From TrEMBL:
It is an enzyme of class 2 (transferase). Its EC number is 2.7.2.4. It comes from Coprococcus eutactus. This is Aspartokinase. Pathway: Amino-acid biosynthesis; L-methionine biosynthesis via de novo pathway; L-homoserine from L-aspartate: step 1/3; Amino-acid biosynthesis; L-threonine biosynthesis; L-threonine from L-aspartate: step 1/5; Amino-acid biosynthesis; L-lysine biosynthesis via DAP pathway; (S)-tetrahydrodipicolinate from L-aspartate: step 1/4. Coiled coil: none annotated. It holds the Pfam family AA_kinase. The keyword Transferase applies. GO terms for cellular component: cytosol.
Amino acid sequence: MKKVVKFGGSSLASAEQFKKVGAIIKSDESRVYVVPSAPGKRFSDDTKVTDMLLHVYETAKAGNDFTEEVKAIKARYDEIITGLEIKDFSLDKDFEEITKQLEDLTNPDPMCTLDYVASRGEFLNGKIMAAYLGFEFIDAAEVIFFNAEGNLNSYKTEKVLGERLSKAQHAVVPGFYGLGKDGKVKTFSRGGSDVTGSIVAQASRADVYENWTDVSGFLVADPRIVPDPKPIKYITYRELRELSYMGASVLHEDAIFPVRHCGIPINIRNTNAPEDAGTWIVESTCQKQDYVVTGIAGKKDFCTIFITKAMMNSEIGFGRKVLQAFEENDISFEHMPSGIDTMTIVVHADEFVHKEQRVISAIHRLAEPDSVEIESGLALIAVVGRGMKSASGTAGKLFSALAKEGINIKMIDQGSSELNIIIGVKNSDFDTAIKAIYNTFITDK
Ligand code: ADP
Ligand code: ASP
Ligand code: MG
């Protein structure tokens, strides 16, 4: 049995948290490869080290004095090193190097990049973790590679990382970054240590990828909206993808791809409650579900473009012409519910608002509709569950739950896979709608 364990920022924010992590790793000898994030928040108003690094980069780039900011970052690490009483270990040399790189930023053509600075959060935490555990440290820039388009080069990564890990009994590989095609450090998008963990699990052909965070698994709804939601025991990769895409931010939305490829399950666990079973993310399962709905997630701030034209349904090519107006303006659409003489396109507000008039005129030019109306302030909520396919009355229950709260449903879209129902409500109804759906399907089941 071989496990890859990834620990998120809050699990590594202080020496106290590091000790919990150390105990978790040492309690199971199959936990052989460790992927750490940068130190996260110690309390709710705290700043994540990654954010501190992004800020110091801006300060240095603007030519301002950054000494105090670097000191504050170093203090975060020194506090951990001291608290863990690691002997003969210091990051002084690393901070000298980082300072040198930041100084380079005022040169006309600096070598130092934003990604390099941001990646130091994980790099330094990885060094501490390796020294603390007595594991080998493997710099992710030597084993994880991106291609010229900036995407993961999975072929080269799997080969180089796989070979390197086959020679290391225990190792720490820092999360969040690798090496770009240009030979410089490159990071994934925010939260990307989850992706590194998945890559390490794939390359080492691990049996399990454990992802340790600050909640006892993937919860049915966002705990910041629903108080104390139930954890999900089993969720499929496909259900998870729907929920993470719609804003359930527990796991980076790209983190499932490397492990999914070779059928390695992900187990989400809580560093602060290691006895909890957490959530299993699997390809498929016949485990009985407690509820028809697996999870609820949503996002605010969408716009709708409502188009009418008499006899639209019989006009061949009408939909294509409308969508061309969005394509010409480089806007992707989220949903497209339609009727006989009407069609609605749902888009992200931040992609659309500054281009709205251009899109409207393109629709008129290309599709000659009778009218085009736009509305903003729409929130989308996804109700996801593999059990919905075989349960009748799910939609009815959902709609009556919202009606009881006086919430007007502005849009409905059921995926043809019957895995999810997406509803649109006003931004201001978002939290109430999620709570009402949770109560209907989970609390009052
Ligand atoms: P880490 O730093 O360990 O990577 P994240 O902050 O990225 O952790 O993800 C965990 C957080 O995700 C939780 O603390 C919680 O606030 C939030 N979250 C949002 N939706 C959900 C959900 N459905 N289930 C669990 N946590 C959720
Ligand atoms: N430290 C990075 C971030 O804050 C990556 C991660 O935590 O996964 O986004
Ligand atoms: Mg995360």
